[in-house]
Amino acid sequence: MATTPGTTLLVIDESPETAESVRKTLADYQRGQFVVVGAADAGAALAALPDSAPPALALVFHRQGGADGLRAVAALRRPFPRLAVILVTDQRDFGALVHAMRLQVDDHIVREEALASALPRIIAAAIDRSTLAGRIEERRKAELFARRKADAVRELIVTVCHEFNNPWRRSRSARTSWPGSSSPRQTGSSWPP
What we know:
- By secondary structure, this protein is of the alpha/beta class.
- The protein is built from seven helices and five strands; from the N terminus they run βαβαβαβαβααα.
- It has a domain at 7-141: Response regulator (Rossmann fold), CATH 3.40.50.2300.
- Helix content is 53%, strand content 14%.
- Helix 1 (16-27) links the parallel strand 1 and strand 2 (34-39).
């Protein structure tokens, strides 16, 4: 699993008790130590983040009092495009799920699951998927860069070879027709000998 001691998790819900419940649920989790940052909306969550490291996951509760959880997801995606996000709803809302898929939410759970013993495994799986997706993207970028670099080297070699060949062609054409004289083809001579 990709969690390390001090892995930051955002919990965005209008109720401050939710962050405390998540903190208690994760306290017994043996594989990693989580720092839970609770906030009522995305702006407050971003302001409350420690400066040391970006968050590993956001647990966003949908249909909050004043703000919509999907707007919070969109606001979190701007500064952290690879952030793993789990959307928590009170019930299965398929309209919200479709919108969440457009926002590339990593997982969806019902509120009862968020406060159950399965939460640590769900969080670990979401963080692992996000980390793996980031590594795959970095690898693709590295391969694309290497491919472009090889193409540039190939183009340079072709250009250098072309430049070597061009003066040779000019010197051959210079031998066949001397300045100030008529072309060997016009005089009928067999130049060059």
